[in-house]
Amino acid sequence: MAAKQTPLSAAANAEILRQRRNKAAQEQQSYRQRALRMFPHVCASCAREFSGKRLKELTVHHKDCDHTNNAPDGSNWELLCLYCHDHEHEKHKLVDYHGGARPEDDEPAPSTFSPFEGLDDLLKDFPGTDESSDDVDAATK
User: Are 79 and 59 a contacting pair, CB within 8 Å?
Assistant: First the structure.
């Protein structure tokens, strides 16, 4: 029989939550700092340059969208400005919203429209055509 777990007090819960947040903040700071040391301070999407106080507007984007995938060589990172980073994540949300279908993946259906379908029938009933013109058409075919 499993031992019954007693619920943690509010203070203990708050302490655990604080520790987890601190750990996550440290991990984020560390890979952000590494990325800032590795890459030029330029947005990889719009090519805006950042320096000084505006450097905080440059964010680290994980190319595979897995924030735990922090390769030491930075191969999964790219520096993006706040606006481009938001845009990048919106693109992924839209792909999920549309069921994973991307416009470039769709093959257009072949056309079944034939512009001259039934033209022979229309020309037979058209005034000014006679049997001799049908013979000329048959000879040219």
Answer: yes
DSSP state of 53: G
- Name the residue range of residue 54's domain: 22-105
65: domain CATH number? 3.40.1800
User: Which tokens hold the place of 50?
Assistant: 């950042």
The count of domains in the chain is: 1
Q: Coil, helix or strand for 65?
A: coil
The pLDDT averaged over each successive group of 10 residues in the chain (141 residues) is 74 90 76 88 94 92 87 90 92 68 64 82 75 53 54
Specify the pTM: 0.49
Is 61 inside any structural domain?
yes
Name every residue whose Cβ is closer than 8 Å to that of residue 80 and which is 6 or more positions away in sequence. 43, 44, 45, 58, 59, 60, 61, 88
